[in-house]
Structure formats: structure tokens, C-alpha cells
Specification:
- The structure is a single chain.
- By secondary structure, the protein is α+β, with helices and mostly antiparallel strands.
- The chain contains 19 helices and 35 strands.
């Protein structure tokens, strides 16, 4: 049965487009080399990353290996928290928030490390004498092959350089060619900002050896080695102490291998040099042609699963940086499709099974102390990185995240016990490669004990899309232990007798009534997260037929959680008290977690909450940090407002105004998201949001084109995944679903929701609740509404709902009713 299931799932994920349309080539391209890092083009294989500048005279290929982190295995819990917990809670419940936050800073926040930074591995630098005066320059990243290419002309000779990062062969390959024999001459060296030395081996190999930095009193003990071997056709290669010199070659290929001594978060006893050399020798034997062929085939098995066509205009003939500059005032729907596929490209390139999950910058970083250390910020950013993984058919690529959750659940048991005297496991708002769990950065930001609750959602969601019970059984203990922590940690608040999380914060925000103190109890997001954790753990236990007593305890606690509340200006309250200001433009919209990525707010079942969420989002505004705008695309999609979602895409695809720190997000010339500075989560969030505009499956049905903008009148999407093992292709005309193909991996009822009537074999009008267990809706409490709340009316379009009985492996076609 297991093998049969896998075959069905593979057939679902690997099927190509049913509605392929002519569309613009999926390439980022430019007419000049990169001058800044945010103009360089990224390649990656999940472990090895490179940023390619494409400079004809002084080429820089900046390198990363995703286990090059500062420090060494360490813990950062503050055991003083346990004794101080009752006093902090007393101060919060008495309204002494400033004193509570001060005490949390003293007793809860780590006294040791606040997390280690992710570090660059260094640079490969190539100098081409006499190439400064070039013509016919072109630079591109081909998203369909994961290869970056630069080409130009010097002294009548046409030159071309290709760069790729191969997952099958675990090397980066730089291939240089010319249309005239003997035309390739250059020198090569490597460097790094600190803690490394370059040497040569023989006449054709560079070696960069070093160790990671020390940080916050934790000594750096990650040893790494980068090896770069030149293979030339024709000409010669010579070495000095720290450089190589290629003269008059017909062609030259540089194989780059990088490795560290990192085995896992507790063990760094590996041999970096031996590992790097083993990868290199294997690649040299295989050769560049075979490596390239296998690289493209490996990459395309993921990338080709989904295609998106939104139409194209003359704008596709412009370089990518010009398209970004003109997008908001022009007409370039193909740039949205390109940006969507670039997000999928980045996830394929940054997160592969067996490796580390994508961090704040994916795997690309040119610094030793990058912004926010390029760690894992789990109060939104890490989770956002993986929002596209299921719906855009890249389920295997969230396995590194699942593995990290396994590991922080191990390290987090001691944190739960030592800091809070609680069973189970927990995590605050940050972790790193060493899987720290303690509170960092100060109580205003770090006194958030909900990281385990949010990350655990991804464990169950992976099951919700696949239906793989064997997988569910493997992660159930993590869900169970996360739930046990909150069963112990929840405390009764005195006003209503609700069970709440305290102390905590609504991530990184504070109410206007005490803006200097964020610490609180029973914030809306915390309540929503605990609701989801308990609900999904209960479902998992019932599927696996286990832990009846624990299920009963969680159900009892669920009934005592606070309901969502609607405040005086009609908003969804962010806090337990009606503290929200309509002037608050904060980048975090944490209280809207229940709308997205959760399913606790439905336009069809919770109209008051739906209206309140919309009111809150309107007040928050549109333009913000890049990742915040990415979240808002999803939120407006869930609010069924495609035009407003598109407006957020336009804001996000505007040129980034700064490389410094700030709130004015946008997009850099290489399509990287700007917080600013660069954070990759906005790329992933917006890609997920584009998919949510076209398909939703969280609210009891497969909803076709739920938030289609008016201007996307004609198009197609193929290969998206819906919960319950359904694959969906949609072709639309005149903003109506013209033809829909549904592939069922698991069988069962497929309820289809549409704004227009549909017809098809086996299609029947829906009645009652959806019997498919993957489509159970959230059973939330009725909201509490302030007596004088300014409620507004939101008009929701009429819908048609149909049921379609499916069989495992079945393919079904539904069309617009004539």
C-alpha cells in the first residue's frame, strides 16, 4: 500500500501542464554586469550557493556553504526564568507592563549567546586583462535550467561564462568559452573577509581554508575548506602561492567544492578537507557536460511541475531591472509570472532534503555578520520561507524545515523544563544552526514562547496535502510534546477565567497605550496558534488512534481559550484588551494569522471576523517591509480581493529604495526581496500569495480562482496542489474558469467552489458538510464584539459548490457550464 501511495503522489507531482500557453522566456536578464551584491545572480543546490556578478574584467563569484556558521554547539537558556515566572505573570495581570518587561529582561532573556551568524565562505575572483572595453554584453539567469550566463565581445572575440550549482554532484561549476582558439587568459584567486588563508595545490588548484568566527563569547569552531580546480582545453595553467594563471586556453572550467566539519547541531567532528576533496574528485571524473546534463534534469524534476501564464506585453522585451522600474505604472503581467517562478527557483536552490532549511537570506550571504545574523526568525520569517512548498508542488523541499523542527524539539525539552518547569518542548522567536531555544534580543522582541507552536503547524500541513499516515506517525510525537508544553504553560487570567499564554508579546509590536512595553497575556495570535496546535494534534491522534486521555485534556483546554474579539473601531483586536490604534502601521500583522496561514476566519462562516480582519488590514496600510507586503498578498487573497492583492504585488515589485535598514520594502534589480536590506522571505511569501489568488483549499472546498484580479482576464496555472492529495490545473477566459483538471492521489470527495456554474462528469451540487476529512473546517468560538463596535459590511460574491467523487489515480475534467 505504501508503494502504491508513493506512485500516485509521484504521478501527481510530476505531471506537467495540461494548458501550456505561449509565454515569455523565464529568464532574468541585463545589459550590464552587477555592480552591487543585490544585482548579482544567485545559483544554489541547497547546500552550495553562489552570487555571480558577470563582470568581464574583474569577475566575482561570491560563495556560500550552508553550514558555515559562527560558534559551535551551545545552549542559551536562562534558568532564572522559572523562579521569576509567577512574579512576571502577577505584574502583567495587574497591568504593570513596564515592570513585567524589565523583570523578563533580567530573568528570561539569555545571559549567553543570542544566536550565531551565518557566514560567507568567501569569494572566487577572476581577472581578465584587457577585457574592460567590452561590447554586446548580456547577462541572464535561466529559471528553466538553473544556469546563469554572461556573454560579451572583446577585440572581435565572443566570450561566454556559465555558472551552475549541481545538487547531484555537489559542486559549483564555472565554464568559460570563446569562439576563437587560445583566447581565454585570466588569473584566479580566492579570499574572505577574515579567518581564512588561500594556497595552491599543484599548478591548477586553489584552496581556501579557514574557520568560522567567534561571537558573543562562543568560540568559532566550524572548519571549512573551499577547493577550486581549473581544467583547461589548450593553453597552460600555472600557480603562484595564492593564485592561478591560465594562458591562451580554448576553454576553461573551474570546479568548486566546499565542505565543513559540521555533522549535526551537536557534532562538528567531520573533516572539511576530506569531504571537499571527495566531492571534487568525483566531479572531475564525471566532467562538465555530464554534470550540466544531470544538474538540469535534477532541477527540472521540481521546477517543471508548475507553469503559470498571465499573458505578455511588449514589456517582456525589456531587461529585468527596467521591467521592475516600470511595473507599477505599466502593464507587464508576465513579470508577475516570472516573480512567482523565481520564488520557486529560490526554494529549489536553497532547500534540499538532507541539508539545512533556508534562513533569512536563503543560502546567499556575503558577510560575516549579516543583518539579523541571517538566522531563523520563527515569529514569521522562517515559516514564510516555506509557504509555497506545498501549494506550488515542492513538498520535498520543506523536508529540511521538518528536520529542523525535529531537532529544536529535542533541544527544546530542556528549555521547557529549565525555564518554565513544563513538560514537552518549546522555542522562543529565534534559532540557529545550533538549535538554540532560549529567549534573545530583549523581552520587547524575544519574550515570545510560541516558536514551537507555529513551526508545528508545518508538520501537520505536510500531512494535510499528502495524506501520508506513515509520515504523520513519524512527526506525531513532536506535535504531542509541543501540545504538552502549552497544557502545562497556559495560565488562568483573572478577568474572564480564560486560559492564556503569559508572558508573551504580539510579535515585535506594542500597543499605543504603553508603546515602550510589548509584554502581555493572551494576545490574539497566541490564542490562534494554541487553538491550531491543539486542534491539529487532536486530529493527528484520532487518525493514528492513540492518546485518548491526552485528546480529552486538549479538548477541555480548547474550550477555555479566549475567543477572538472585535474592538471599538470594528477591528480584530491584536491584544486581549481593546488597545489597537487605527494609526498603527506596524509591519507585523500577527493577529491576522487566523486569516492566513490559518483557516480560523472564513467569509462564509464568520462574516463578523472576516469584516474585522479586513478593517484591521486596511488600517495597517499596504506599503511596508518586503516580507510584510508578501504576507499581505496572501491576506488579501484570503479576503477574496484579487485587485487589492495585485496592488500589493505592484508595491512589492517596485524598486527598493535603499540597501540600508528601513521599512520601505520593494525589490532589488536581481528580484531579491528588500526588507530592506535583503530578506528572502518576501520572495517566498509573494510566490505563495500568487498561488493563493488562483487556488485555495483551506476552507472546506477547493476554491477555483478565489481572488483573480480584474486585469488577469485570461491565463492558466497548472500543477498546483490542494489539501487531500488533489492536483489542480486551471485555464480561464474572461475571468471565468474555462477548463479545470483535477488529479486525485488519495481518492475521496472533492468539493469544488466557484463563482461561476460548472459542468462535468460526476459533478453534483454539494450538500451538507464536506465528508472529506482533509476539509474539516475550524470550529471556533463566536467572537466577542465590543458593544459600540463600528461594524462594516463586506459583500462576498455568490458561489456555486459541487461534489465530485474521486478514486486514487483518477483524472477529472470540469468546464464552465454553457
Amino acid at each position: 500500500m505504501r508503494g502504491f501511495f508513493c506512485c500516485l503522489l509521484l504521478s501527481l507531482t510530476f505531471l506537467g501542464s495540461a494548458f501550456a500557453q505561449d509565454s515569455a522566456p523565464l529568464k532574468l536578464w541585463y545589459t550590464q554586469p552587477a555592480q552591487k551584491w543585490v544585482e548579482a545572480l544567485p545559483v544554489g543546490n541547497g547546500r552550495l550557493g553562489a552570487m555571480v556578478y558577470g563582470d568581464p574584467a574583474e569577475e566575482v563569484i561570491q560563495l556560500n556553504e550552508n553550514t558555515v556558521w559562527a560558534g559551535q554547539p551551545n545552549r542559551n537558556d536562562n534558568p532564572q526564568a522559572r523562579e521569576a515566572l509567577p512574579e512576571v505573570r502577577r505584574l502583567i495581570f495587574e497591568g504593570n507592563y513596564k515592570e513585567a518587561q524589565q523583570l523578563a529582561n533580567q530573568k528570561f532573556i539569555s545571559k549567553t549567546s543570542h544566536g550565531m551568524p551565518y557566514e560567507t565562505a568567501g569569494n572566487l575572483k577572476l581577472s581578465f586583462a584587457g577585457h574592460a572595453n567590452y561590447t554586446n554584453y548580456h547577462r541572464e539567469l535561466d529559471l528553466e535550467k538553473a544556469v546563469t550566463t554572461s556573454s560579451y565581445r572583446v577585440n572581435g572575440v565572443n566570450y561566454k561564462t556559465e555558472v551552475l550549482s549541481s545538487f547531484p554532484d555537489q559542486v559549483i561549476v564555472v565554464r568559460m568559452s570563446a569562439d576563437k582558439p587560445g583566447a581565454i587568459s585570466f588569473s584566479a584567486t580566492m579570499d574572505r573577509p577574515a579567518n581564512a588563508a588561500v594556497s595552491t595545490k599543484g599548478s591548477d588548484e586553489l584552496i581556501l581554508s579557514g574557520k568560522s568566527g567567534s561571537h558573543e563569547g562562543v568560540e568559532g569552531k566550524v572548519q571549512f575548506q573551499a577547493q577550486a580546480r581549473v581544467q583547461n582545453t589548450g593553453g597552460t595553467v600555472k600557480a603562484t602561492e595564492s593564485s592561478l594563471h591560465v594562458e591562451q586556453a580554448d576553454e576553461a572550467t573551474i570546479y568548486i567544492s566546499i565542505a565543513t566539519n559540521f555533522n549535526n547541531y551537536k557534532d562538528i567532528s567531520g573533516n572539511a578537507g576530506e569531504r571537499a576533496d571527495a566531492y571534487l574528485q568525483k566531479a572531475l571524473k564525471k566532467g562538465v557536460e555530464a554534470i550540466r546534463k544531470d544538474h538540469v534534469a535534477d532541477y527540472k524534476q521540481y521546477f517543471d511541475r508548475v507553469s503559470l501564464a498571465l499573458g505578455q506585453t511588449e514589456a517582456v522585451n525589456l531587461p529585468t531591472d527596467q521591467r521592475i522600474a516600470q511595473f507599477k505604472i505599466g502593464n507587464d503581467p508576465a513579470l508577475v509570472a516570472l516573480y512567482f517562478q523565481f520564488g520557486r527557483y529560490l526554494l529549489i536552490s536553497a532547500s534540499r532534503p538532507g541539508g539545512q532549511p533556508a534562513n533569512l537570506q536563503g543560502i546567499w550571504n556575503d558577510q560575516l555578520t549579516p543583518p539579523w545574523d541571517s538566522k531563523y526568525t520563527v515569529n514569521i520569517n522562517t515559516e514564510m520561507n516555506y509557504w509555497p512548498s506545498e501549494i506550488t508542488n515542492l513538498t520535498e523541499l520543506n523536508e529540511p524545515l521538518i528536520q529542523m523542527v525535529r531537532e529544536v524539539s529535542e533541544s527544546g525539552r530542556q528549555t521547557a523544563r529549565d525555564m518554565y518547569g513544563a513538560d514537552g518542548w518549546m522555542l522562543h522567536h529565534n534559532t540557529d544552526i545550533w538549535r538554540i531555544n532560549g529567549a534573545v534580543d530583549g523581552a520587547f522582541w524575544g519574550m515570545w514562547p510560541m516558536g514551537g507552536a507555529w513551526l508545528s503547524q508545518h508538520l501537520f500541513d505536510k500531512y494535510a496535502f499528502s495524506g501520508d499516515r506513515e509520515y504523520l506517525a513519524s512527526v506525531y510525537p513532536i506535535l504531542k510534546e509541543a501540545s504538552k508544553f502549552y497544557l502545562d504553560f497556559l495560565v488562568e487570567e483573572p478577568e474572564h477565567g480564560w486560559l492564556v499564554v503569559a508572558p508573551s508579546v504580539s510579535p515585535e509590536n506594542a500597543p499605543s497605550v504603553h508603546p515602550e512595553s510589548s509584554i502581555a497575556a493572551g494576545t490574539t495570535m497566541d490564542n490562534q496558534l494554541v487553538f491550531d496546535l491543539f486542534s491539529k494534534t487532536i486530529k493527528a491522534a484520532e487518525v493514528l488512534k492513540t492518546d485518548e486521555a491526552l485528546v480529552a485534556e486538549m479538548k477541555k483546554s480548547l474550550q477555555r481559550l479566549p475567543p477572538m474579539q472585535i474592538g471599538k473601531w470594528g477591528q480584530l483586536q491584536e491584544w486581549m484588551h481593546d488597545w489597537d490604534s487605527p494609526e498603527d502601521k506596524h509591519r507585523h500583522v500577527s493577529h491576522l494569522y487566523g486569516l492566513y496561514p490559518s483557516n480560523q476566519i472564513s467569509p462564509y462562516r464568520h462574516p463578523l471576523l472576516f469584516d474585522a480582519a479586513r478593517t484591521s488590514l486596511l488600517a495597517r496600510g499596504d506599503e511596508s517591509t518586503g516580507w510584510s507586503m508578501g504576507w499581505k498578498v496572501n491576506l488579501w487573497a484570503r479576503l477574496l480581493d484579487g485587485n487589492h492583492a495585485l496592488k500589493l504585488i505592484e508595491d512589492q515589485l517596485s524598486p527598493a529604495g535603499s540597501e540600508g535598514f528601513g521599512e520601505g520594502g520593494g525589490t532589488y534589480p536581481n528580484l531579491f526581496d528588500a526588507h530592506p536590506p535583503f530578506q528572502i522571505d518576501g520572495n517566498f511569501g509573494c510566490a505563495a500569495g500568487i498561488a493563493e489568488m488562483l487556488l485555495q483549499s483551506h476552507d472546506g472546498a477547493v476554491h477555483l480562482l478565489p481572488a483573480l484580479p480584474d486585469t488577469w482576464t485570461k491565463g492558466s496555472i497548472s500543477g498546483l496542489r490542494a489539501r487531500g492529495g488533489f492536483g489542480v490545473d486551471i485555464k480561464w477566459e474572461d475571468n471565468k474558469p474555462d477548463e479545470v483538471t483535477i488529479r486525485s492521489a488519495l481518492g475521496g470527495n472533492c468539493r469544488i467552489r466557484s463563482y461561476y456554474p460548472l459542468s462535468g462528469k460526476g459533478l453534483k451540487r454539494a450538500k451538507g458538510a464536506n465528508p472529506n476529512l482533509f476539509y474539516q473546517v475550524a470550529e471556533i468560538k463566536d467572537p466577542l464584539v465590543t458593544a459600540d463596535a463600528d461594524l462594516k459590511s463586506v459583500q462576498v460574491r455568490s458561489i456555486y459548490e459541487y461534489d465530485l467523487k474521486t478514486k486514487p489515480g483518477g483524472v477529472y475534467v470540469v468546464k464552465l457550464a454553457k
